[in-house]
Records
---
Amino acid sequence: MDALKRKVMEDGVVIDERILKVDGFLNHQIDAGLMYEIGEVFHSQFQDQGITKILTIEASGIAPAIMVAHRFNVPCLFAKKAKPSTLNQGYYQTDVHSFTKNKTNSVIVSNEFLSDQDTVLIIDDFLANGEAALGLHRLAQQAGAKTAGVGILVEKSFQPGRARLEEAGLVVSSLCQVASLKGNKVTLLGDDQ
Amino acid sequence: MDALKRKVMEDGVVIDERILKVDGFLNHQIDAGLMYEIGEVFHSQFQDQGITKILTIEASGIAPAIMVAHRFNVPCLFAKKAKPSTLNQGYYQTDVHSFTKNKTNSVIVSNEFLSDQDTVLIIDDFLANGEAALGLHRLAQQAGAKTAGVGILVEKSFQPGRARLEEAGLVVSSLCQVASLKGNKVTLLGDDQ
């Protein structure tokens, strides 16, 4: 997706060979118009899949996911990183490790909002090691729901996330694929060919 | 706003006399169409105020705020509850106490994204004691930005939030005002008249 690729090239800040900071349009300040366009793109890709729910994880996944949900005219469901005091009934739970933050979070979805009648599209901001997307897929599986695919904004293609998701049988669509962050610059997949 | 009031009455779960759970359309599963309509309403109320940025706080504020930002065609900026490892430059910081969670969070906005050229509209899901909105207003003040107003989805009018915000000179617009949660039921302001 050209608009997103342009933003990544113009506004992305390379922190080191593994970390790309996109606080200017995604992870702190958010470009709402760009999120809207992203909703259009994922809708065009997955509109025939019978999607009933968009599934994401707080906090950075919410902005793109709500726009995708709006375009599909279905609810957006975000997994929580801590069990709220008000969640006393049943829930699905799995562990997700963040390599960036070096921390394992138990993520939770209430069983009120996900069932074997659902077909979910997983949306997340980044794909690196695939931990968050695989965790969301496990939550869907616990509910007996089908995962139609995984929609990612920025894929770090030099990390194993895509391979792990594909091994799990998931269809992955990434709007911007980063081949490398070496030499303090962003190289997109295809750019060096 | 009738659509939101209806949702609160139909889907809101009274936990106790102070806590209303709205996980069905706002705080866990999110009604994307309703968030879109909320963007329209706040835009119609604040469109003449020269808003340059929508300011909110993670995580539950993001969904309505991004829709408001989209309608205003301005960026959405969300304050973070923890300093990210990638935020090494200057930032504004203030403390926000959550009475529900009985926890004080230091909330942060990078000084890259807020300046004395900005006029912000603060958006949040709930108004109870006003801590989050006042904290966001302090962040705006630290940046020299103007706060045009505070847009709230659900106000608990039996708690002091609105009074505290108005004392601070802020214009408050709440789309649904809850007068009481007593007797295990939601009474909206005006309903008992």
Note: Chain A has one domain: 2-188.
---
Amino acid sequence: MKHDRILLEHGSGGLLSNELVTETFLPHLKNPCLDRLEDSAVFNLNGKRYCFTTDSYVVNPIFFPGGDIGSLAVHGTINDLAVAGGRPLFLSAAFILEEGFPMNDLERIVKSLGRAAADAGVFIATGDTKVVPRGAADGMFINTAGIGEIRYPAPLAVGSIRPGDAILVSGFIGDHGAAILASREELTLSTALKSDSAPLNGLVESLLEASPRVHAMRDATRGGLGGILAEIAARSGFEMTMEEKDIPLRDEVRGICEIMGIEAIFLANEGKLVLFCPEEDAPQVLKAMKSHPLGKDGAVIGRVLEHGPGRLVLNNAFGGSREIDLPTGELVPRIC
Amino acid sequence: MKHDRILLEHGSGGLLSNELVTETFLPHLKNPCLDRLEDSAVFNLNGKRYCFTTDSYVVNPIFFPGGDIGSLAVHGTINDLAVAGGRPLFLSAAFILEEGFPMNDLERIVKSLGRAAADAGVFIATGDTKVVPRGAADGMFINTAGIGEIRYPAPLAVGSIRPGDAILVSGFIGDHGAAILASREELTLSTALKSDSAPLNGLVESLLEASPRVHAMRDATRGGLGGILAEIAARSGFEMTMEEKDIPLRDEVRGICEIMGIEAIFLANEGKLVLFCPEEDAPQVLKAMKSHPLGKDGAVIGRVLEHGPGRLVLNNAFGGSREIDLPTGELVPRIC
């Protein structure tokens, strides 16, 4: 059944997002780059491979513990390039501002965006600003697109995943989603919790140096670890398992999830990657991960099975297991 | 005096837009690409020159005579690449949708965007969709970023403009702005008027073939012909003159301007370029322009003087003249 209007869920990174892409966008935009459905397009320019990606940021609130919409817009796009094996080179930054937006807040955001780019070693090469009348947008939206140079020889893509692969995650999951939730809701919890928003390009470079056989990486943003892996499992055609006890999860995030009745594996991350590599390489990749500040809490959390339909199964600590589907509904609108 | 809140005028392409860029954005994002302040960044990748640009589209209404926000988002970004001497290769497309947006309208827009890209020979290589709750955005915004390959050896930039250059425009001005205005206001005029939204990459290629000495090009979007030329004059440090009688202007646009009390030279175009070349090359460039469907109404409209401060002077048919400043105020919010 096709919906006749856009629902919040179409932007969730879950089932309806997928449907929108495959049923509404792809049929009219079909081409070899887009059809891969990875976070970045990959193409040759003058004999070398480059990647190219775009994301709009509509996060609410624009300032949150651990970051703001400016740093997030830099980290998010850098991460999409990094997980394609790209060294980020240039970003664009396009602002849509609501009339009446405070100039001081704009300056803070631009400064934060500039610092995040400089810290990650990328240039903001080009930009744009549009202003819409009061009420036509909520405060500020930012789009960043980015270009990266691919230096890793193998294709990092869902199609490269093989049976027997280990699945690693680079640290505690759900921090970004929980921090945004906590900054919106009137929770009585202490909120030492911060977004994990961070640029993953340095971590990725050290992981690719550690193993020349990494098969695929993804940053686990909208849809969370569970949503990303369920999507990858479905597309790969392999059954994948996760061990609940091995998934790094902070007590504070667990607490917020229990109070709100949501699952941490579906909460967005903005500085965590999921990685697939041959099981025999997993120890050296994990070691490289743990020796990087942004991967020190990394873990092997699952594996790709030899057989079975394309689906994701979560095994819990008590011997039970259940299938994890692409999330439906929208847990946290404007999460990024 | 610095404003403490964003005004509509900050998005006009005029004086306050310039101020926002130079006072709020550049200080925090400073780098050699951005500091050129051209519509596209230009850089080397693997020994070849490429250009990179971004624009968000917030036009209202999203369907208008002569196009829609989808085709506009493709044409606008292609044109920014083309006037940098770039052959457009890849575009990104990022949608921000308001909850409740009609799916049929989205399909029409995506189809139009896809067709515009295919017609211009570019790939939509990567994309993104965000959905915000009702009231947090007005319908739909689109961002496109683009990458082009520069094949013209000389730098096409304000810094290349020389005294004595002829100034050409590729056809009737103000059509886009007037068409959007007419589609909003309750005008009793007949509205055969259509936006001039079109991809200029083909025209640009034939112009660059006609003269190896074209110095600079710009597409005359926000701020119109007058705004773009006033900005270029100020930045170049040269006095420039325009002859009012030589500026191609449709009677319908003149009529709308008279009714609304606005100047056609400040109305946005989405398929018109301004070009600077040595006066002796102007005849062959104009001939090439007129032999292309998108330049058939082109004309030489002015020149760059030998001396004088960086300013733009408009000479009228009766021997009078006046200085044209960067426009202030915002004629038509959400024009593109």
Note: Residues 170 and 272 of chain B are 5 Å apart (CA to CA).
---
Amino acid sequence: MEKTKILLDEDEMPRKWYNVQADLPTPLDPPLDLGTGEPVGPEALAPIFPMELIKQEVSQEKWIPIPEEVLDIYRLWRPTPLYRALRLEKALKTPAKIYYNWEGVSPPGSHKPNTAVAQAYYNMKEGVERIATETGAGQWGSALSFGTCLFGLECMVYMVKISYEQKPYRKVMIETWGANVLPSPTNTTNAGRQILERDPECTGSLGIAISEAIEDAATHENTKYALGSVLNHVLLHQTIQGLECKKQFELIDQYPDVIYGCVGGGSNFAGLFLPFMGDKLRGEKPDLQITSCEPMACPTLTKGLYTYDSGDVAMLTPLIKMYTLGHDFVPPPIHAGGLRYHGDAPILCKLTHDGFMDAVAYHQTEVFKAAITFAQAEGIIVAPETAHCVKAVIDEALRCKETGEEKVILFANSGHGHFDLAAYDAYHNGKLVDYEYPVELIKQSLAKVPKIE
Amino acid sequence: MEKTKILLDEDEMPRKWYNVQADLPTPLDPPLDLGTGEPVGPEALAPIFPMELIKQEVSQEKWIPIPEEVLDIYRLWRPTPLYRALRLEKALKTPAKIYYNWEGVSPPGSHKPNTAVAQAYYNMKEGVERIATETGAGQWGSALSFGTCLFGLECMVYMVKISYEQKPYRKVMIETWGANVLPSPTNTTNAGRQILERDPECTGSLGIAISEAIEDAATHENTKYALGSVLNHVLLHQTIQGLECKKQFELIDQYPDVIYGCVGGGSNFAGLFLPFMGDKLRGEKPDLQITSCEPMACPTLTKGLYTYDSGDVAMLTPLIKMYTLGHDFVPPPIHAGGLRYHGDAPILCKLTHDGFMDAVAYHQTEVFKAAITFAQAEGIIVAPETAHCVKAVIDEALRCKETGEEKVILFANSGHGHFDLAAYDAYHNGKLVDYEYPVELIKQSLAKVPKIE
């Protein structure tokens, strides 16, 4: 009989992260200084990141050892189970085999702690006592507060004010793990005060919160900054997902034909697909299909420009080569808050641009419809972000039903939707709206992308 | 190196539930008819329960096979991991070994689906097409809607109105799995209409919701009623927990010295301890200590009377022998809504009365303090109900630190607190209040217990 879950014992957990930079046919384009247009060296990042993470950011080593102390924490929920979605297959009457790795079993409920724990560890090792970060709806803030709590660091979270007020549960999680959390803009930073002077009622944005967190790290002693996606070292830490999955597929003598995941900044999906992508880059799996799923309201990979742009609204970060909708693009307020970023991880963007993977975009009502089909077949209520790849998987499985193909489908089930049930409620009540693909907005924001080359 | 999690493969899942009635030194006292005072036969329950569950209720067979279709659903999250709380032990500097089985990995997030799935299955097998039930804060309603969804049954949930309005997320979960949910009192039943005529603004109670659900089942075709705790067949289904735990302890060559769990109706804790209790009843483990943890605000086992009483406010159920605070006792509004029942499962009550186990009671602020210690050591944010036994475990571990005893402690980690973060918020902000042990209220409600002997 087919198993529902393929488990690994914690002794079988991978001991090294996989660094795809070693297998890329051509190297990543370096980050550039906005002023000079010249490549940025590691020293530019030293004020805000610990040295070990800066090294990982540019490393060309294929395998990076996972410290024992990080493995010890991973054991609290890893290895995560690889599920076979037998009941979904049956409901769809598809000959396809559908698998997913389930990251919702972590205490914060998503893949985010895979890097939060690692980042907290390296900061602790280098004597940092306090980390500042920003969070939108609270996924990253709760993961980092979990990580810093376990390593005894202080944590300061700048949470976008409208989320702080409307979605208080993630805030309470952050506090339960001992971190401080303030609604951004605050009056504790220059960046925050300037905004509040102009607009005392400002409800905040991720861009403002990033500015506050970076200023906090730069102006407090023994304090660094941490980012939850996009950067190479974040993707590196997330590869624990795909490495476990490869072992699990070996146990059942299978290999995926196609891999789907949702993409906001790209770290979750990259964490799953990169170890498989390595096989493709080395020519061992030329036919493997890897597809990013994004919202029509923020179609970075399907409608964006592949160029150098800033990672944040205030242009505090170096310029990075990526698909972008323009650094000041503000997408419509879809429920998948984690997919509203204007850019994507440089590694994922390069692989997409170079033709090793592709992307699709969906409207949110079709996405929630798919999530409910999934919940009623498999039980799990996924996060709205994850629901984007569930939609792609169901479509693929139905195509297989037409063609009779017995494709092996894998997708990244990145987290639960326990704090997103208001969005499901809106769907049930017919109140969920689809936003037009914002052509004019994107045209305007792309016009402001710095001209480099 | 010590493992953090002891896992079983799904092939190692127990195939039979354990029925402690076969091992009891003296039989359970039978339920009695309120009018005649005579024992109630199975036929009295036939209008509201399927025959197989009525048989299980009175069965003296030691082992009851788990149907394959139920095992198939259990595989979605079972076997659950047995955790060793290494980080909590270290934080407490205790020589004790602390273990817990983690039921929060089920899609509804608690132990409740262990019986919800079984009950939905037996109803489906007997041609029932629709199940009615009540729910307070929504734990049971969401578990039953999950179970009925997977077996293609309709489900009607009467949810206490104040919870429906103040805690809408469990309601959305129930709807996501396809069930109907109405705020009780409704105007769709006689019981509900009578209440609303007297008090149109009534915010509902579990007692009213039970009356509505039983009336619904009795007046709709092909509809039965389902109860989420207290009854013998519910405890039976929950023994899958303890049976898995015993196998996991065998794998590491350990056996608990003391077992703790929180008790509302008692099915969760009994599900964990009964297979171990069997060893004690057979004289194999005479020194095993089993302790129920309950709230000081609803101290059924520590302050109640062991006598025949009704299971519900409206006295619709037969009289059952149990510890009771009186069937119309309404406890103070503590956050652990699942521990506010006036009685307890007859099996657990008899074992307590006969001296095979004991009980302790706690105030809620000390309980939340323990839960936060646990969250900061182990990562998991537990439900307020579960937090009661976490308090007992931490106290026991600290006693072991004094005495140097290397006791093996096991506790029932029955579910996550993702929908209870408002209570954690109240704790963080110093707004959590402790309620005096309600002596006068209990005296008044005990005076109304029917006199039977």
Note: Chain B is about 40% helix and 15% strand.
---
Amino acid sequence: MSDPIKVFLTEDEMPRQWYNLQADLPHPMPPPVDREGKPVTPDMLAPVFPMNLVEQEMCTDRWVDIPEPVLEKLRLWRPSPLCRARNLEAALDTPAKIYYKNEGVSPAGSHKPNTAVAQVYYNKVAGIKHLTTETGAGQWGSALAMACRLFGLDCRVYMVRISFDQKPFRKMMMQVWGAECIASPSTRTQAGRTILEQMPDTPGSLGIAISEAIEDAVTSKDTRYSLGSVLNHVLLHQTVIGLEAQKQCEKIGVYPDVVIGCAGGGSNFAGLAFPFVCDRIHGKDVRVMAVEPSACPRLTRAPYVYDSGDVAMMTPLLPMNSLGHTFVPPPIHAGGLRYHGMAPLVCHALREGLIEAHAIPQLECYEAAVQWARTEGFIPAPETAHALAAAVREARRAQDEGKERVILLNWSGHGLMDLTGYEAYLSGALTNYELTDEEMARSLKSIEGLPKPPGA
Amino acid sequence: MSDPIKVFLTEDEMPRQWYNLQADLPHPMPPPVDREGKPVTPDMLAPVFPMNLVEQEMCTDRWVDIPEPVLEKLRLWRPSPLCRARNLEAALDTPAKIYYKNEGVSPAGSHKPNTAVAQVYYNKVAGIKHLTTETGAGQWGSALAMACRLFGLDCRVYMVRISFDQKPFRKMMMQVWGAECIASPSTRTQAGRTILEQMPDTPGSLGIAISEAIEDAVTSKDTRYSLGSVLNHVLLHQTVIGLEAQKQCEKIGVYPDVVIGCAGGGSNFAGLAFPFVCDRIHGKDVRVMAVEPSACPRLTRAPYVYDSGDVAMMTPLLPMNSLGHTFVPPPIHAGGLRYHGMAPLVCHALREGLIEAHAIPQLECYEAAVQWARTEGFIPAPETAHALAAAVREARRAQDEGKERVILLNWSGHGLMDLTGYEAYLSGALTNYELTDEEMARSLKSIEGLPKPPGA
């Protein structure tokens, strides 16, 4: 087969192990710590996560076996196709070849189910019957709802109230999958009740929803909490994307010059990128590029610090680039990229010089997304649009330089549940947001007095 | 590879020709006629469709080459995977094997783009610059919008006003793909203006929207009209589904005992089924099953007559099972299955005993759809749910009989744009609709005095 648009793997060719970048890091990552700076121990995490996932979070083995029941569920939509964006290449008149890994083929429409099925499986093995989580726009909540149903666990999703009211379709998806979707703040938790007493009309926030989901998990029988990005084990589960992509590239005899993913919490980027970072560590000439919104410039502008994963500081302190846990993100449509922090492993890889980071403003991302939809057909999620915009920049550079260049990007999800952003863009109502130094300094006040990671 | 969940074809294995059932019919179909009963000639259709598609509509060759530029666009998402619903089989505890052809992988999320790209291509070759069409819920309008953009044609979609207002997301999809989406009735056509003068607050109807789209096409320069189902050439383009499925079945050494598709205008059913009907004509022991809603029982209860394809009688009379062109469908959520008529080729195949027809009520379809989502992950379109409900019936029969049985169904699209129906079902607000004999007799008054097809 010569130069096809799509490359499939058979199910037999699916990876049987996840790849753990920690095994290949030139220097080990600093550990998560408590507010006194003392490393977090497994038993401190046990009320929140099952012990098998806590162990996986701390594991430094290079390869981790994917359990057969997890593989079985992944096979409902995996392996995902590797595709070539020939129509976009032609429209850009570029000598670059643009390949994309289409993670939009999952039932929830994004890469999120890759870790959802793994996390639910490990919880099930540990005897857990119920999982809680939070969700903003609903992409993670719907993925976990589906995974819980597939394994027969109950799922309670605390959804930020304003999204619950304004975006009813993600909530309906969760209900189809049998999950209970609760507007947050709710009266079900102490955290929710306290907030509602103080601010009965609050639209809610991701920070509040996390607090409710964790409180629910630690106070309910046979219940744990599940997180959709940021943590090491979540990134690990996503590496199935990059491992498949490597096999697919090999099948058609190409190897990327540049690998691109958008970075919110970091798992989508890491999922495609880390197996290629491994190649880079072992001598391959490949650039690896994380793309974030200019409105939330963690990797490109924020300091490397110890900070909490949530507003209420219920999580341990993680070594990461952070805008401060009280950061109030601008209302960009890429809801998945509005987090204040970033996966510690991604931040560490950046400090080690293994990856590069770029920030792109909202309008350029939508321009790329619309061009994509009008040439390649598929409508990208606004998060994915950041990877596309970076790919377009690379393709233009290839054209300027008159050089062939193989670009590989993570097409992390479709935008069929996110069309209001497109409507705003097409009607001219969208604007760019650039975080000012003053705004950043203000939100960074929340980390004053916290311990500092070594070398920061 | 032994018994995988998914079977892929390479792009090289994609069919290069469409299959035309007309070549294998034991008796030829009656022709479309005018109101005097005279067969319609190509020149009568020329103002509405380009001549190459008119010729294809009347063609009786067994195999029709798929033009290379059409193949190239189809490859953006085809070949689609053939999948086995193992989790559902386990949940039903059935000895049946349930395979499904996943047409939800297209950019528009359904099978509709298969004919959209072909129709746009033929129009482009014929020098047409603009296409018009109508759409109800928006599935066809969005598919044509995408196809027009891929080939560089303009697209104007007349969308029933109540859907335009209540279902803004399909409209946004069309706009992302650069189409103009117009609420119908509109002031752009004489038909629309007349209706608006008489009924300024009308919610619109598919009949009015068809009238507007055809009027726009025949009165505008370099403009033609495009239809998403019913006609022979539309069914022809969809046979790529069944031809791929045959190759995929062959790859894993299975052959279906029963082939199932839901039937609205008939193209989704025919697309999967007709290549298997061909096998049946040539001696294969395979049952082929069209499934319609009990609320719109064309194949199971309506008479075989000559009737118009639209309320305003702008189309020729087609030989088909019809509830009468003034039929007002009950408000079931499967918007694509609420048509008053049915593809003449499907109706003829039924009369020839080549296929069987079943009607299933709404609640049973949603029950099957929710069970599907909770076992197989993917959320089905409400139309697709009818095929699923029939498959569940067949699987239960296999269990009762203790027999293995291979079931193949057309999973024609996902339901991510149709979640309100699920919400109504899960909240207990949905009901069944059965058409009474009196209601049917009333709507059939509209065909009194029209010519009758031979043998009717």
Note: The CA atoms of residues 193 and 199 of chain B lie 10 Å apart.
